[in-house]
Write a structure and sequence with these properties.
This protein is mainly α. The protein is 47% helix and 9% strand. It is an enzyme of class 3 (hydrolase).
């Protein structure tokens, strides 16, 4: 793209976080169709087996408590039925993800005290599975260590998050990690120019957002847009592709 010779209809497939389904479900399909892909990995999930949002989900599924007190989010969240649990989970995630990681960790400890601690199940790939991806020729990228939104953190925490993540993945794979997908990923809300500068300082070359769209020759290298292929209807999916092409054609 930088050299101006990007093939027509070029497509990049990316997977964020590092969940088990990347290896179990996606990998066989990618290999069957000989598709390249990049996996952006939050390294703490690989180390401990789960991320903070998985803790919240497993706590709510397992609990017999009827509510979550307002001490967590400022409002009482009911847990009487499966539907209420789903709604309360969504409300909790929306609230917790915009906290800095220290405050979020404290809140989750309070949640454990209220709902009853559980033995958390592994939801993320193992280090061995991540290594196998690279051995098979797939690329890895960074996704911070704790999967935290960088705009909620201090400059030093940002550096620590990026560096810890990069070093972990490079030590595991013995390969350079030169790209990052910023968690949550909306440019100028979840990360900004300052965070891009921190990534450049650590020798990252590219950064991916979740701003909808396609990437073109003059797209900023640390705000490369992506779009989620959540439309299962082929016609609607095709329309989303056409929209991106027409806006940037």
């Amino acid at each position: 793209m930088a050299e101006g010779n990007l093939p027509t209809k070029a497509l990049v497939l990316t997977f964020d976080d590092g969940y088990q389904d990347n290896f179990i479900n996606a990998l066989p399909v990618l290999e069957k169709h000989r598709c390249a892909a990049t996996f952006f990995i939050a390294s703490k999930g690989i180390e401990q087996g789960y991320l903070w949002n998985d803790q919240v989900q497993q706590l709510i599924i397992a609990t017999e408590a009827e509510k979550i007190s307002k001490e967590i989010t400022g409002v009482v969240l009911p847990l009487h039925s499966k539907q209420e649990k789903i709604q309360s989970f969504n409300a909790l995630i929306t609230y917790l993800k915009f906290l800095d990681q220290n405050t979020r960790t404290m809140k989750i400890k309070l949640l454990e005290d209220e709902l009853g601690a559980v033995i958390y199940k592994r939801t993320m790939m193992t280090a061995s599975q991540v290594k196998q991806l690279t051995d098979k020729g797939f690329m890895l990228g960074a996704h911070t260590h704790n999967h935290t939104i960088l705009s909620t953190e201090t400059k030093q925490v940002t550096i620590d998050e990026l560096q810890t993540n990069k070093v972990y993945l490079e030590t595991l794979t013995r390969k350079e990690i030169d790209s990052i997908a910023f968690p949550n990923g909306l440019y100028n809300r979840d990360y900004n120019k300052e965070h891009c500068g921190a990534a450049k300082q650590l020798k990252f070359r590219f950064g991916f957002s979740t701003n909808d769209g396609g990437a073109f020759q003059h797209t900023p290298k640390f705000a490369l847009p992506r779009f989620m292929p959540f439309r299962r209807n082929l016609s609607l999916f095709s329309l989303s592709i056409a929209k991106i092409a027409s806006e940037n054609g």
